Automatic annotation (TrEMBL):
This is Right handed beta helix domain-containing protein. InterPro entries: Beta_helix (IPR039448), PbH1 (IPR006626), Pectin_lyas_fold (IPR012334), Pectin_lyase_fold/virulence (IPR011050). Residues 283-435 form the Right handed beta helix domain. Residues 1-40 are annotated as: Disordered. The lineage of its organism: unclassified sequences, metagenomes, organismal metagenomes. It holds the Pfam family Beta_helix.
Length: 639
C-alpha cells in the first residue's frame, strides 16, 4: 500500500503520478483518460517554473520550447490573464500561438542596450547564392546550385546588380516564395513569376530565408522596455521571415523604436490592437513597422495614442537584425485605424536617411478608412510608387496632412480620393519628387472628390502637385495629372500644379483662398496642354489674383467663374510665360470674371492666345492682350 501511495505522489517519473489516475467527464458517451492526459489540455508557465528562476521569462520560454518540440494541445501557449515580469527576451517558435487571455508581459526590466527585442521570432537565413544569368523576367523556374537547404514555402530574395525597368522601379530584394526545389538538379520553382523588369545579370543572386509559419500572438498586454532614444532601437514584438503571422487583440506601450516590427514577412496581419506612448522619451518610435521586403501585409482596425509614428515601412539593412538585408516593402495596406496625437506618421522612412536617393522604400501601399487627429507633425508621409490614399479623415495636423513622394523617375501612380482634410497648418496634400536630388516622379496622379477646409498657410498651397514653383526646372516629374471634384477652402493658394509633361485635366472644382504673390488662388505653371473646365474660383484677399497660369501652351480654359466678393485690386486671370517654355496657342472661353480691379492680362511673351465669350461686367478694367503675336479677343461683355 505504501508503494502505491509513493507512486501516486511521484512528480518526476512520467509513468507514475497522474499517469496512474483515471478520470472521465460525468457525461454520457464520455471516454476515460488519465489525469496526465487531462492536464495537458491546459498548460501554463507555472507548469515550468522553478524557485531558482530570476523572472517569469524562463518559465515562459521553457513552455514555448517544449510545445514547439511536440504537437501537444495544438502548440498554443495560454498565459491565463496573469502579470508576468520578464527581464530577458522571449523567442517564439515556428507554428506557435501565444494567447495571453488578457495577461500582461512586463519587459520594463530588460537591460538597457541597443536593439533590444522583448519578444521575437527569427527565421534561419541561408547564404547568398548565385542565380543563373539566363533567367528571364517573368520566369517561374530558375536554376540554382544543387544541394541547397531549400524547402517549399521558404522565402527567398532575388537581387541583381543591374537596374530594373522604370515601369516597375528599381526594386531590390523582392520577396519570393519557393514552390519546389530539386536538390539534385538545382531547379527552383517559384510560386509567382519573377517580377517583370528584372534585369538579371551574371551578378544576380538570391538570399535564402527559411520562413516561419503561422505564428500568432493574441490578447496580450505588452509593457515595453523603457529605453531612451539615445541608446538605440527597441522592439516590443519583432518577427523576421514569417508567412502569415497574426497579431490581434493586444495592447502595446513604452518602446523607443517600434512596438510591432515585421521584417521580410509575407501576408502578415496586425488587427485590432492598441498602441500607447507612455511619455516623451518612450513615444519616439513607431506603432507598427513593415520592413525590408515584407509584402501583402495588412494593418487594420488598430488604435494609436501619443506615438511619434503610427506606421512605417522601413529599410533596416545594416541594423544588426538577423538576416536583415535591403528590400522593397510591397502591397501593404493600412485600413480603418484611429490615430491620436502623433508627432509624425511615416510610410517608407529609411534607416540611414539617404536611401531615397537609391531606391523607393515602398510600393503599392494602400492607406484607407483611417482617422488621423492632432498629429504634431505631418499626418501621412509616403515615399514610393503606386499608392492609394482613400476615404481618410485628417484633422488638426500641425504640419502637412499628406505628403506623397516617389523617388523612381516617372514610375507608378497615385490615387488620392474621398479624403477629408480639416484645420491643418501645412499643406493638405503635397505630391512631389525629391526636390533636393531632383530624382523621382509619378507617371500618373489622380486627385478627386476630396474636401480641404481651413488648410495651408499664407505662403503655401492647400493642394500642391509638383515641386515648389521656385524649383521647377526642365526635369518635369508628373507627366499626367487628373484633378476633379475638389472643394478647397485655403488660407493661401488653394490649388497648385507645376511641372507636368503631358498636360493636366482640372475639372468641377470649388476653390477658395486668399492666394499669394505670383500664385493666386489657383496656380498652373509649366503645364502644357492643360484642360481646365467648370471651376469656381473665389479670391478672398484684397490684392488676390484669381488664377495664375505660366508656360501653359496649347491649353484650354473654359466655363470658369472667377470672382472676388469683397473686391480685389488684383487680376482675375494672369497668363505668363517663361523664356525657356513659352505660352502659345492658349484659349480662354465662356467664363465670367467678377469683382477684380483688372479682369486679366496676357504677358508680352504670350502669343496666339484666343479670348472668347467672357463676361467682365464686375471688373474695373478689361482683359489686357499684351504685345504678343496674334492674340485675339471676341464677344467680351464689360470693360
Amino acid at each position: 500500500m505504501s508503494t502505491t501511495f509513493s507512486d501516486l505522489a511521484n512528480s518526476v517519473d512520467p509513468e507514475k503520478g497522474t499517469a496512474l489516475i483515471g478520470t472521465r467527464q460525468p457525461l454520457s458517451g464520455a471516454a476515460g483518460r488519465t489525469q496526465q492526459d487531462k492536464n495537458l489540455d491546459t498548460l501554463s508557465p507555472a507548469d515550468f517554473k522553478f524557485a531558482s528562476d530570476a523572472s517569469d521569462t524562463q518559465s515562459i520560454q521553457r513552455l514555448i520550447d517544449r510545445l514547439s518540440e511536440s504537437d501537444v494541445h495544438g502548440k498554443v501557449v495560454r498565459l491565463g490573464g496573469k502579470h508576468y515580469v520578464c527581464n530577458t527576451p522571449i523567442r517564439l517558435k515556428d507554428g506557435l500561438t501565444l494567447d495571453g487571455e488578457g495577461a500582461t508581459l512586463d519587459f520594463r526590466g530588460v537591460p538597457h542596450q541597443a536593439r533590444t527585442r522583448s519578444m521575437y521570432a527569427a527565421a534561419t537565413t541561408g547564404d547568398e547564392t548565385p542565380l543563373n544569368a539566363d533567367a528571364e523576367p517573368g520566369a517561374v523556374v530558375l536554376r540554382l546550385p544543387a544541394g541547397l537547404a531549400l524547402s517549399p514555402n521558404d522565402l527567398i530574395k532575388v537581387y541583381s546588380d543591374s537596374r530594373f525597368d522604370d515601369r516597375t522601379g528599381t526594386r531590390v530584394g523582392e520577396l519570393q516564395i519557393v514552390r519546389s526545389y530539386d536538390s539534385a538538379s538545382g531547379f527552383l520553382s517559384l510560386s509567382v513569376p519573377l517580377a517583370y523588369g528584372y534585369a538579371v545579370s551574371e551578378g544576380a543572386k538570391i538570399i535564402q530565408i527559411h520562413s516561419l509559419k503561422n505564428i500568432r500572438v493574441l490578447n496580450t498586454n505588452f509593457l515595453g522596455p523603457q529605453i531612451s532614444n539615445e541608446i538605440g532601437q527597441a522592439w516590443c514584438l519583432s518577427i523576421y521571415g514569417a508567412v502569415s503571422p497574426l497579431i490581434s487583440g493586444c495592447t502595446f506601450s513604452g518602446t523607443s523604436y517600434a512596438e510591432v516590427l515585421l521584417i521580410d514577412c509575407l501576408r502578415g496581419r496586425i488587427l485590432g490592437n492598441d498602441f500607447h506612448g507612455t511619455d516623451q522619451n518612450n513615444a519616439l518610435g513607431y506603432g507598427i513597422s513593415f520592413a525590408n521586403a515584407s509584402r501583402d501585409c495588412l494593418a487594420q482596425g488598430n488604435t494609436f495614442f501619443d506615438k511619434r509614428h503610427f506606421y512605417s515601412t522601413n529599410n533596416l539593412a545594416g541594423y544588426g537584425i538577423e538576416g536583415a538585408a535591403a528590400g522593397v516593402v510591397f502591397n501593404c495596406s493600412f485600413l480603418n485605424g484611429k490615430m491620436h496625437r502623433a508627432t509624425w506618421f511615416d510610410i517608407a522612412e529609411t534607416s540611414s536617411g539617404d536611401a531615397m536617393d537609391t531606391h523607393a522604400a515602398s510600393d503599392w501601399i494602400t492607406f484607407e478608412g483611417n482617422t488621423v487627429f492632432g498629429s504634431v507633425g505631418t499626418g501621412l508621409n509616403i515615399e514610393g510608387a503606386n499608392s492609394i490614399v482613400r476615404n481618410n479623415h485628417f484633422d488638426e495636423c500641425e504640419r502637412n496632412a499628406c505628403v506623397v513622394k516617389n523617388h523612381t523617375h516617372h514610375s507608378g501612380s497615385l490615387l488620392f480620393e474621398g479624403n477629408i482634410i480639416r484645420n491643418c497648418k501645412g499643406r493638405g496634400l503635397l505630391v512631389t519628387k525629391d526636390a533636393d536630388s531632383g530624382k523621382g516622379g509619378f507617371s500618373f496622379v489622380t486627385v478627386r472628390n476630396s474636401i480641404f477646409s481651413n488648410v495651408g498657410t499664407e505662403s503655401t498651397s492647400a493642394v500642391q502637385i509638383g515641386i515648389a514653383r521656385s524649383r521647377v526646372g526642365s526635369d518635369n516629374q508628373v507627366p499626367r495629372v487628373l484633378v476633379t471634384g475638389l472643394q478647397v477652402d485655403a488660407i493661401g493658394t488653394a490649388l497648385e500644379i507645376t511641372g507636368t509633361e503631358n498636360g493636366a485635366m482640372i475639372a468641377d472644382c470649388d476653390l477658395r483662398g486668399a492666394g499669394r504673390a505670383n500664385a493666386g488662388v489657383m496656380l498652373i505653371s509649366r503645364v502644357p496642354g492643360a484642360l481646365v473646365n467648370n471651376l469656381r474660383i473665389e479670391a478672398t484677399g484684397a490684392n488676390t489674383t484669381g488664377m495664375y497660369c505660366a508656360s501653359t501652351a496649347n491649353s484650354i480654359l473654359g466655363n470658369l467663374r472667377v470672382y472676388s466678393p469683397g473686391g480685389s485690386q488684383g487680376y482675375g486671370i494672369i497668363i505668363q510665360a517663361f523664356a525657356e517654355m513659352p505660352t502659345d496657342n492658349l484659349m480662354i472661353h465662356d467664363s465670367r470674371i467678377d469683382g477684380f480691379e483688372k479682369a486679366g492680362s496676357l504677358a508680352p511673351a504670350v502669343s496666339y492666345a484666343s479670348i472668347r465669350n467672357l463676361n467682365l461686367r464686375g471688373c474695373t478694367s478689361g482683359f489686357e492682350l499684351g504685345a504678343g503675336n496674334n492674340n485675339t479677343a471676341a464677344d467680351i461683355i464689360g470693360p
